[in-house]
Each structure stands twice: as C-alpha cells, then as structure tokens.
Specification:
single chain; mainly alpha; Helix Hairpins
C-alpha cells in the first residue's frame, strides 16, 4: 500500500506544482495586461500632446512673419512628433503581442493543471478500487477462517456426541 501512497504523493505534488505555475502565470499575465493598457494610454496621451503642440507651432507661425528656416524647423518638429507616435504604436503592438503570448501560456498552464488534477483523481479512484478489493479479499479470508472454525466445532461436537453414545 505504501507504493500507492508514494504514487499519490507524486500525483499530488505534480498537481500542486501545476497550480503554483498557474498562479504565477496569472500574475505575469496581469502585468502584461497592465503594460498593454499603460502603453495604449501613453499613446493616447502622446497623440493629444502632439496634436496640441503641432497646432501651437503652426499657430505661432501664423501670428508673425517668418523666414523659410522657421517653417522648415516646424516641419522637422512635426516629423519628429510623427516618429515618436510611430514609436508609441510599435510599443502598443509589442505589448499586445506579449499580452497574447502570456494569455496563451496561461491557457497552456491551465490545461496542464487540469490534466494533473484529472490524473490525480483517476489515481485516487484506482487506489480506492484497489483498497476496496483488498478489503473484500481480507473479509473473504476472515469469513473462510470463521467458516473453517465453525466446521471444526461442528465436527468436534459430532465426534464428542458419537463417542458419548459409545460409552
């Protein structure tokens, strides 16, 4: 029976390990979701800032007489803002991919945990069936021994009765 206890402890260990991995992955997934949301929020904030800054740059140009160099500088500033916006878009896309990867990892670990739980439950059932069979076998042996003792008593009683009649 210790063999079954050892196997059961192994199955329980694997189930607990899988459960711990799922818990850890939930944290990692939560961090990935938070990073994705933060990157989206940073993009939206930057877009608002860039739009306002671009308007103020052009508004400043419109208020005065400027040289061609000032217009070119504003255009370069706008191009720089667009590059920064593209960088924010890439960050959002990267965070989205990381979030999806962590979601997939979480789903995989949940599946592993579910399989480990099923394996443990199946083993517990098999161990219970084995224990029940052993118990039934023990009861059958006890019944057979009691039957044998009862038969010996009957034989002895019959023997005693037959010898009393002779005497």
């Amino acid at each position: 029976m210790s063999f079954f206890k050892e196997l059961l402890s192994i199955k329980a260990f694997r189930e607990n390990k899988a459960e711990l991995n799922v818990g850890k992955q939930r944290v990692v997934h939560g961090e990935a979701v938070a990073a994705h949301l933060a990157s989206e929020q940073a993009l939206l904030s930057f877009q608002d800032y860039a739009q306002q800054h671009e308007r103020s740059l052009y508004a400043d140009l419109c208020k005065r007489i400027v040289k061609l160099r000032a217009i070119e500088e504003v255009q370069l500033e706008v191009v720089f803002l667009r590059d920064q916006e593209q960088s924010h878009h890439k960050t959002v896309a990267s965070a989205e991919l990381e979030k999806q990867a962590q979601e997939q990892r979480l789903a995989d670990l949940r599946r592993v945990h579910k399989d480990a739980t099923k394996a443990k439950e199946k083993f517990v059932e098999l161990a219970q069936v084995y224990a029940d069979e052993k118990s039934k076998e023990f009861e059958r042996k006890e019944d057979a021994e009691l039957e044998e003792v009862a038969e010996l008593r009957r034989d002895r009683t019959e023997w005693d009765e037959s010898h009393e009649e002779v005497a």
